[in-house]
Fold this sequence. Notes:
Strand content: under 5%
Order of helices and strands: HHHHHHHHHHHH
Radius of gyration: 19 Å
Low-confidence stretches: none
Number of strands: 0
Number of helices: 12
Helix content: over 70%
Structural class: mainly alpha
Number of domains: 1
Shape: globular
Amino acid sequence: MLMGLFIQALIFIGEVFLAFFIGCLFYWLFRKLRARFQARKGPPWYQTFADLIKLFSKKAIVPSISEGFIFITAPILSTIGYLIALSLIPLAPFPPIAWFAGDLIVVLYCLTIPSVAIILAGSSSSSPYGAIGASREASLMVASEIPFMISIITIAIHSKSLSLLEIMNLQLKEGAMVFRYPFATLAFIICLLAKLGRKPFDIADADTEIVAGPFTEYSGFLLAFFELSNALKWFILPAFGVSLFFTSNSLNFISFLLICLGLVFLISFLDAQNPRFRIEQAFRFYLTLAFALSVLDFIRALV
Length: 303
């Protein structure tokens, strides 16, 4: 039993390194595509790795007027949320490291933790920029989580399961859910923009308005943990979307990555083409259009 746990731990460590490496490349690709769309050159492929190495080598400065424990814990909590989610998401054709009936609920909770961590980071920093950023993140989270959850629950109802692995196996038999529930898929992709913090929903850390929002007071290795979370989410969130909506009987790991790459390209294009929403515009958008799209397929699943 101990040997089995040791092997699983090694596999998970390898999976974390794979997710980190691919996530860094996906984030670089987003930055490169956005630059090209805007007639700029963009960063080299190793830029994210270099940034992380530099940040982890520097000392973090904790403001004396901040809530020290929460300020330090928030970025670590964000990374932990993504790591737990990674252990439960199947990477076709490989099953997840840990899975059980109802693991979909745990993944949803884990994907909410980073947003909560950003809110805690901004509100604990005692910075006006951080407080505004935390307030915006909280408003955006409330609005986007509703269609995000409904679109995923739609798939769970159709599959009669709360297990990601069983949902994937059903798609291997019946085909990808994107063809059966296109409106729920579209609502999910719209919500991915907010989860990834991309335009038109990069409101919480709008650099032209509030410097870096919740991250303004962060530096050194604490900021590095937020950057690490950012790299992980660029792989984990597309992988989660592929597991729910884009699995088919011809899916292998290469095609899995290609579909993830397609989502990254789509998000990059939307980011480059759209201006930033005001928070009330984003709130209204999610509770009208995105909500309506998710509910349409939710009703179809119930019927």
